[in-house]
Amino acid sequence: MQQSRSKQQVMAQYKELVARLTPKSKTAQGCLRAFWVGGLICVLGQLISDSARRFLEMSLAQASLFTSIVLVFATALLTGVGIFDKLAKYAGAGTVVPITGFANAMVSPAMEFRPEGLVLGTGARLFTIAGPVLVYGISASVLVGLIYYFVM
Amino acid sequence: MANRMGYQTILYQNRPWIVSSASAVGPREGKGPLADRFDLVAQSADFGQDSYEQAEAALLRESCRICLGKANLGEKSVDAMLGGDLLNQIMPSSLAARALKIPFLGMYGACSTMSEGLLVGGMLVDGGYASRVLCTAGSHYATAERQFRFPLEYGNQRTPASQWTVTGAGVVLLAAPGADSKPMACLTRACIGRIVDMGVTDANNMGAAMAPAAAATLCGYFDDTGDTPQQFDRIITGDLGSVGSGLLLEWCGRMGHPLPEERMMDCGLTIFDSAQDSHAGGSGCGCSAVVLSALILPKLQSGEWRRVLFMATGALLSPTTSMQGETIPGVAHAVVMEGVQ
What we know:
The structure holds two protein chains of two kinds.
Chain A: H1 2-21, H2 27-55, H3 60-80, H4 84-91, H5 93-96, H6 99-112, H7 118-125, H8 131-151
Helix pairs in contact in A: 2-3, 3-6, 6-7
Chain B: E1 4-5, E2 9-11, E3 17-25, E4 40-41, H1 52-70, E5 80-84, H2 91-100, E6 104-106, H3 113-126, E7 132-139, H4 141-148, E8 164-165, E9 168-175, E10 185-191, H5 206-225, E11 234-237, H6 241-254, E12 264-266, H7 267-270, E13 282-283, H8 285-302, E14 307-315, H9 319-323, E15 330-338
Parallel strand pairs in B: 3-4, 5-6, 5-7, 8-13, 11-12, 11-14
Antiparallel strand pairs in B: 1-2, 2-10, 3-9, 3-10, 7-9, 10-15, 14-15
Helix pairs in contact in B: 1-2, 5-6
């Protein structure tokens, strides 16, 4: 018992040393980059939506859907040609949080696991990253829907 | 026992020779500071193969052929091949051994594989169980990312302590003394590392997971043999990176064996330069293997260094147990190499 306590002490000392000697991520810089790139993507989305309503005479619902389709397509294309991961390395949450992050999370495993075949490779591994978002996102929306149904 | 010293150190009575070495690397490593020392630099990361796994196997296979070619030996003249890599079932090594048809023993020590292979291979030669042994280790950035992290095109940011898996394979040919002309160096001692786990769980800070194991092996070796760090031209660690190297200095100091900073070298900090954006440095089985083949052994051969301690370090990480909350066990095996003049 005494020995295990001293072992715990050594581990605690090491943990403290690791915390001191490990460089930290640059949070302020990261926030700034995420803000301006993420903001720009949102401005772009608004531009697409407004243009769709004005020039293509879409309803608000149609224009929203159209915007998502355009952004997802653009991300898929940029992922395919190997540009998106470089952009995301710079922008971090700025590209992850908008729908662009979701599109990238689908396309990148689809490409990655292509050598294992279309069914057991791409097909089976397509949702490895986006899967949890879908499971818990959809579950949460059903839960909120139920609450809304009974309470309102 | 005559062939042992203290608790964990081995003496090679006959001093097995290192007669040849070779390295084959990917394009990124081929743009680093050691560029013109490698025997083969692949033009593309897939090395003309159908998958990155096949590319990793091909790099291993080709570096074995180059190594034997340098010694003017055929594959039939090698008694055993000891090798490993980072992938499940150490598949690239098995594929390489399948092509070479050399009797094969698979090794797994994560990034410590190169020194593990040398340590055991040295015993085979020293004990007279083999006259020539090929020791290999390789890794590939793309295959390691897929197995341990994310798809290549997935957009994420790396933390400052993360390391970059080296694409490359390093091979060393051991032989019984006198069997071949002019060795590059010889093996004199080795130290089998204990697994040390200080409770690090961050898979993006493997230097921190491995540093205590490296410290334990070094201190164990110094206690067993009475050697001092000053008796080595270099004490070379595998892939501790900038974070792990700092931790090793600090931790060894606290354990009563202060290390001279000017004699320390880390392969992970040698293979890339700071402009290559590899954060805390290179890692992977191939990292220490290619630096050993391309830099360390030639320096021992030329007489620039006379005695080095080569200690590849491994984070024995599994994605499955990591997700289950298990901490990362570390290991480090040391091999003492001396020039033969």
